[in-house]
Amino acid sequence: MQAVIMAAGQSTRxxxxxxxxxxxxLPLLNRPVLAHQLDALHGTIDEAILVVGYMREQIxxxxxxxxxxxxxxxxxxxxxxxxxxAILQSAPHIKGPFLAMNGDDLYAAxxxxxxAASDDPAALVKHVEDPxxxxxxxxxxxxRVKRLVEKPAEVFSxxxxxxxxxxEPSVFDVLKRTQPSARGExxxxxxxxxxxxxxxxxxxEMESYWLPIGYPWHLLDANEYLLNAWLEHRIEGEVSPAAxxxxxVNIGKGTVVRSGVVIDGPVLxxxxxxxxxxxxxxxxxxxxNHCKVxxxxxxxxxxxxxxxxxxxxxxxxxxxxxxxxxxxxxxxxANVRHDGKNIASVVKGEVIDxxxxxxxxxxxxxxxxxxxxxxxxxxxxxPHTYSFPGEAVRKDVVDTRRTPQK
Length: 406
Description:
Elements: E1 2-7, E2 27-28, E3 31-32, H1 33-41, E4 47-52, H2 56-63, E5 66-67, E6 70-76, H3 83-88, E7 98-102, E8 105-107, H4 109-116, E9 122-127, E10 135-139, E11 145-150, E12 159-167, H5 171-177, H6 188-198, E13 202-205, E14 210-212, H7 216-230, E15 234-235, E16 238-239, E17 244-246, E18 249-251, E19 256-257, E20 262-264, E21 267-269, E22 274-275, E23 280-281, E24 286-287, E25 292-295, E26 298-300, E27 303-304, E28 309-312, E29 315-317, E30 320-321, E31 332-333, E32 344-347, E33 350-353, E34 362-363, E35 374-375, E36 380-381, E37 392-393
Parallel strand pairs: 1-4, 1-7, 4-6, 9-13, 15-18, 16-19, 17-20, 18-21, 19-22, 20-23, 21-24, 22-25, 23-26, 24-27, 25-28, 26-29, 27-30, 30-34, 31-35, 34-36, 35-37
Antiparallel strand pairs: 2-3, 5-6, 7-12, 8-14, 9-12, 10-11, 10-12, 32-33
């Protein structure tokens, strides 16, 4: 069987992290999102067709033409004209029934196998609390779809579309006849409505997890879930007898953990890192390869990408720190509002409620903060930006040519 993975988008909602990499290469448990997707498909498919566009060379270089025995084929979506348009790009290479899935959502292998085993075209669905936020299916008692409505004003079902499908090649004829939506895109959801009217189209209810990556903080949600579900306790680095390790902790080769370090799992530390002395890694901390976490540093439920450094007296809570970023001595990421309300963040000029009461900083690649920088909750740094010594960062830092805040 084949699978089509839609991975061409620019992913502006996950800026600044996707200013320097495509979303499929964002790290979870120190491995790209795309690797987790292909792992979930292993044993179900023999070929994956990757629909690429934005920074496609990075994906092709990282994955090549084979992943654990799955053949990889790349097709280019030159213009991002919707999910239906993305699937159309794969048409010349499809040989029979196939899976299609979003390139930024994670699904359990068991659910993908159940979807692939459907005798009819079908979609994976999940019951949700607020149907107004999703595309919602109405289905009969046998799972046959009656209709699919995007973000319905009234609740008629709680079966949400999660962006994973089983199609027959006949879907391509339907997609070719599908008119562009109001935003000028060919939507796969419109084609599904047409398929449901013409023949049997079913829903397959999920039994396990769905981890969508829509905004930067969703990486923290997914990383925390995977740490708790999958992390194996394994120590391959050098750990001082004066360090304290509690719970499930995975430490990579070449990593040195010095005296006075306390690690409370689940915690993942990559290869060739320098940890300590006298620092605290709390549950949810994921440290990439070649990272430095130094004296007096506390890291909690955060992701440090490769070559990131928190060397002196830093607090990093519920935050994402990009590659080759250095936090100056005393840099602190505040992750809770004084009033205890949910933390908001500006995305594409709009203030978005993260849904999280705890959210620190989202910092891109190659950022340098000055000593004693204090970062307000939910603030972001664009790649190659910086802060001044003693600065309180109240707004997103998007300009590499700055003047000190007064």
